[in-house]
Amino acid sequence: MIQFYAPDINETLTLPESEAQHCIKVLRTRIGDTIEVIDGKGMRYTCRLLDDKPRHASVEIIERFPVLPVWRCHITVAIAPTKNIDRMEWVVEKLTEIGVNRIIPVKCRHSERKEIKIERLERIAVSAMKQSLKATLPEIWPMTPIDKVISELNATQRFVAYCDPTIPRLSLAKEYNPQSESVVILIGPEGDFAPEEIKAAIDAGYCPVTLGDNRLRTETAALVACDTFHIISQLTQ
Amino acid sequence: MIQFYAPDINETLTLPESEAQHCIKVLRTRIGDTIEVIDGKGMRYTCRLLDDKPRHASVEIIERFPVLPVWRCHITVAIAPTKNIDRMEWVVEKLTEIGVNRIIPVKCRHSERKEIKIERLERIAVSAMKQSLKATLPEIWPMTPIDKVISELNATQRFVAYCDPTIPRLSLAKEYNPQSESVVILIGPEGDFAPEEIKAAIDAGYCPVTLGDNRLRTETAALVACDTFHIISQLTQ
């Protein structure tokens, strides 16, 4: 099944031009054919193509139905973007694919990357959402300072993952409660969080965790953390 | 800590030229300096550099000690290589980083890629092993037909993961027993295993599994499966 992304389909009844190009020029969809359209907000629409000009690909909605995420817990991954942008783009693709609700690029003291353009990350998330047959786009925040993330995010459980072995850590797999309605996990930069950042998170109520005994890259840690939430949740289903 | 890879260090007492180049030209290590060397077979050596010519970087071994994997279960991931080679290279990097003992590229009926050069995959695994501070290189097999994989691999638990919802599947997270000494997981190609391949695996005693309700790409499925073994094991530690 191919899904087209049209965030405003319900109002405009028209595909955005890039999606229309793909639909009409590449896949050769014709007037009267039916297509599946998602809005990134949890709705899927079965539509009939009324006009096959890429600049004005209008549709008629035949059926609309909600496509809920397959996981129940609202997951936020707050991650210091990697120096190598490919690795950050990769993690956005993979987090979207395995299932996440919100991705927050975090600026830390040891961050190798202090700025990030989120438009490209959003395009990657759209592509991964379509490919993995979801209908909800993860929310991607602009770069946010760590102190703001720590103080402003609320969740049933909040975790901070780091490498520094001198500050005691618990096991994320054991601490995560699959009944939690929402979780936040903070993942530090290549050089780890500064000790005062870890302390600030713990003082604010974050649970200090390790993801296991392996040394993981930043982007791998984000993925393993998100996998941990999904896998532990499956045990109770 | 930087690790250099010299598979025959114990016999040759010399760094391979590419490693010696990095050690001497890039990192400017000098005669008398100590370096850490791994052999990919589970041993780490603290060495003193005796000669700083890149073509003949001889060393003296000061200390040798075993570095065991941090996981106890022997993990084999048998995966149909993706059409896009970048995705296959990426999964080799990530599996090595999160911890795997053996990677087997599998040729299936629906495989998009029928041949693969493993030399480049081995270089990627070496790099990931060094970076993640391991001392054991995963074994990488050449491309192997699915029927050979099914009939020849032995393990305490063997799993076949697929998408086809018409053949009943269990949950990998629930079925994996963290007391198992060894596991094998089969991951199919982009177009999934053929039904007769799934049947052959089940007939041979493989447990049919799903990795959850998400639709995952081949390379993501391999990573999530390997994560499942590690995360479930952590619950019993």
What does this structure look like?
The structure is a homodimer of 237-residue chains. Chain A folds into 2 domains: 3-66, Ribosomal Protein L25, Chain P; 74-235, 3-Layer(aba) Sandwich (Alpha/beta knot). The longest helix of chain A is centred in the C-terminal third of the chain and has 18 residues, at 218-235. Chain A is 34% helix and 24% strand. Chain A is of the alpha/beta class. The model of chain A has no long low-confidence stretch (mean pLDDT 95). Chain A binds chain B through residues 70, 90, 94, 97-99, 131-133, 171, 173-174, 212-217, 220, 223-224, 227-228, 230-232, 234-235, 237, and chain B through 70, 90, 94, 97-99, 131-133, 171, 173-174, 212-217, 220, 223-224, 227-228, 230-232, 234-235, 237. Chains A, B: It is an enzyme of class 2 (transferase). Chains A, B: It catalyses: uridine(1498) in 16S rRNA + S-adenosyl-L-methionine = N(3)-methyluridine(1498) in 16S rRNA + S-adenosyl-L-homocysteine + H(+). Chains A, B: Keywords: Cytoplasm, Methyltransferase, rRNA processing, S-adenosyl-L-methionine, Transferase. Chains A, B: Residues 72-228 form the Ribosomal RNA small subunit methyltransferase E methyltransferase domain. Chains A, B: It comes from Muribaculum gordoncarteri.
